[in-house]
Amino acid sequence: MKKISTLLAAVAVSAAANAISAETWCMPGTYQDWSLEKNIFEANGDGTYSQTIEDLYGDFKVVMYEGGSSWSNQWCSNGSPVENKVAYEAKKIDNGPNIMLAGDNMHYINAKVTITPGENDALTILVEAERVENGQETWQLVGDAPLAWNFTTAPAFTKGDNNEWTLAYTGTITGTFKVVKNAAWANSYSTAGAINLGEVYTLTGPQDPIDNMSPAAGPWEDPTFTLTVGDTVTLKVTTGEAGVEAIEADALTGEAVYYNLQGQRVANPENGLFIRLQGGKATKVAL
Predict the structure, then answer these.
(1) pLDDT, tens digit, 9 for 90 and up, residues 205-262
(2) Residues whose CB is less than 8 angstroms from the CB of residue 229 and which lie 6 or more positions away in sequence, other chains included
């Protein structure tokens, strides 16, 4: 009886060890905050692995790890996006570029993802979505605390007129940051080095990794970020003082034009304090 118990214990230990060291495939990405412990593939018994994702969007990678969290075995973009129901050959690259879905800000709904590992680090990915939806365009500011390096809590820009997006941030910015479109790191935009208040910068992107931006001369208190999105993406950062100075320098005459206290033009001002510019004179008014 004792021998049987010992044998059973040894088998249990062996099974546990095998379970820990077994290959584990996962697909970290924007859609689940880049966690290796989420969205694990299940073995199909034929050398392939599958899982179904309710809403697949943004960018992602495929990672295989043994016995714990590790990013050392990751499969990345081959330079092209993944298309629905078309086999995709991923590349094993250390810290390589993220894989994107075909289309701008597409959501693959109820997407069955099947991977097939092969020889010489080959990996085929097949995404079969129930349907494909076009999501709403978003722009977010990500960065060091008090900002965040994730899309769940990072503040978002608000779309205005003339392809302008604005973000009036309440707080102090001291560290590095960048701008990201449609919650995908591969859609990162930035310019190298520190930037000055009131100046317009043309951003480089979309790409990741990319240099981060930072304040050029001390912290910013309650800054406002203004993006102009077109053939190029530009960024201008102002504070309340810098915004008023910009208005005072404006040479508009005739019909009254209104700005908020950050120096942004407002088409239909109401319920707040504004700067009214008329006849070359700037006046603070409450509406």
Answers:
(1) 998 888 999 999 889 999 999 999 999 999 999 986 544 444 444 444 457 777 776 5
(2) 139, 163, 164, 165
Q: With contact defined as beta carbons under 8 Å apart, do 108 and 81 qualify? A: no
Identify the helix (H) or strand (E) that includes residue 11.
Answer: helix 2-21
Q: For the chain, what percentages of helix, strand and coil (3-state, to nearest 5) are there?
A: 15, 45, 45
Could you tell me the strand order of the sheet in which 88-92 lies? 24-26, 62-65, 74-76, 88-92, 123-134, 106-117, 49-56, 42-43
Q: Does domain 139-286 have CATH number 2.40.110.10?
A: no
8 Å CB contact between 147 and 141? yes
Q: Is the whole model's pTM more than 0.90, yes or no?
A: no
